[in-house]
Amino acid sequence: MMQQEVIEAQNLGLTFQTGDGPVHALKDVNLTIGKGEFVSFIGPSGCGKTTFLRCIAALETPTEGRLRVNGMSAEEARKARSYGYVFQAAGLYPWRTIAGNVKLPLEIVGYGRAEQEARVARVLSLVDLDGFGRKFPWQLSGGMQQRASIARALAFDADILLMDEPFGALDEIVRDRLNEELLKLWAATGKTIGFVTHSIPEAVYLSTRIVVMSPRPGRITDVIESTLPRERPLDIRDSAEFLAIAHRVREGLRAGHAYDE
């Protein structure tokens, strides 16, 4: 059975016009992401990983090519609340409780109070924050704050979850735990996830496919299908299979520098 296409980019390009001349952020990006996939984007700083994610979310507008999200334009998908977006920083309002932060987008859209409460309780449970709804952000660790940010992105129960280096600022121990929890969350919800990272081990551990991007202008230099099983204990990172995939990602990053302009 053919996998449903959730995100489709064809010859996508984005050029920013600046006072110092044009900046080519993306060029000739072709990629299809199927329903339920976990796709990571990795590449050097400034290669367009985040820009591509922002195009999917209609936060940036491509200047070339075609982009479809859930069978519609990115702008239409944004209005249809087809995705949740998790930024690098948790971005929680300090004067609102954790439940209040998670509830905020639901309030803005106009969900009834009972529906808000039900959704908040469900997503806090999904990210293992039961009992923390009445706490304030400053009372939670960095990892817990980022889990609250993920809960907020899940509140609409959108099909797509876009994550821009959500664990980049956390220490390695916390990051490992959240990687494990994210895989459990993905298994439990079946969502399609687009994930930006600078970490090769993180990309290999989490993904069904890894998209390797070149320095600006951002091009896709390799798309690596993971052969790892869906069930992935952390110690799988010591396996020969894991190390072989990581090696290919590293080679793809090295090859990408041949495109430097």
- What share of the residues does DSSP label as strand, in percent? 15-25%
Strands of the widest sheet, in order across it, are 5-6-7-3-8-9
Shape: globular
Largest sheet: 6 strands, mixed
What is the total tally of β strands? 9
Question: Which structural category fits the helices and strands?
Answer: alpha/beta
Integer-rounded radius of gyration = 18 Å
Helix fraction bin: 25-40%
H-E order: EEEHEHEHHHEHEHEEH
Summed up, the helix count is 8
Terminal CA distance reads 42 Å
Spans of at least 5 consecutive residues whose pLDDT stays below 50 are none
Mean pLDDT: 91
Question: Can you describe this structure?
Answer:
The chain has 261 residues and is of the alpha/beta class. It is 36% helix and 25% strand. It has eight helices and nine strands. It has helices at residues 49-56, 74-79, 98-109, 113-126, 142-154, 172-189, 200-206, 240-256; strands spanning 5-18, 21-34, 38-42, 64-69, 83-86, 160-164, 192-197, 209-213, 220-225. The strands form two sheets. It has a six-stranded mixed beta sheet with strand order 5-6-7-3-8-9, sandwiched between helices. Strands 2-1-4 form a three-stranded antiparallel beta sheet. A hairpin with a 2-residue loop joins strand 1 (5-18) and strand 2 (21-34). The chain is globular and about 50 Å long. The mean pLDDT is 91.
